[in-house]
Write a structure and sequence with these properties.
- This protein is an alpha+beta fold.
- Helix content is 33%, strand content 33%.
- The protein has a four-stranded antiparallel β-sheet.
- The longest helix is centred in the last third of the chain and has 16 residues.
- The protein is elongated and about 50 Å long.
- The two termini are 21 Å apart.
Length: 123
């Protein structure tokens, strides 16, 4: 197992499910990410006069390390919040065919101007 991550999961949070879905779709369509998962969570944050709980939608975007900066720029520029969450977690190991699929999808987008083959995942 390499300690240098070639793949990552980038996380962002949204208060609106439709916005989360739109971000996931646009990142995949632009081939900045090979896939995205959306999860509804309860978020606890500081607020004026105390602490608040609210429903948020976490988008987990799977991509290759060279795409991080382009993905970050896309998420930050398209996000409705002034200070959007964008954090990246390295994938140190995983299913080799899945990780190769990520590479094929996002690298093809980077070299072909966003036009991919079929993009389907057949493991």
């Amino acid at each position: 197992m390499s300690t240098e991550a070639q793949h990552v999961i980038a996380y962002s949070a949204f208060t609106d499910r439709a916005e989360a879905l739109a971000m996931a779709r646009s990142a995949v369509q632009k081939q900045l990410a090979a896939g995205a998962d959306i999860r509804e969570v309860t978020s606890v944050r500081p607020a004026e006069g105390g602490v608040e709980e609210r429903t948020e939608y976490i988008v987990a975007l799977q991509t290759a390390t060279p795409m991080i900066e382009a993905l970050k720029a896309h998420v930050v520029s398209e996000h409705s919040q002034k200070l959007p969450v964008f954090v990246v977690v390295p994938i140190l190991t995983g299913h080799d065919k899945f990780l190769a699929w990520i590479d094929d999808y996002v690298n093809e987008g980077a070299t072909a101007g966003g036009v991919g083959r079929n993009g389907s995942l057949n493991l």
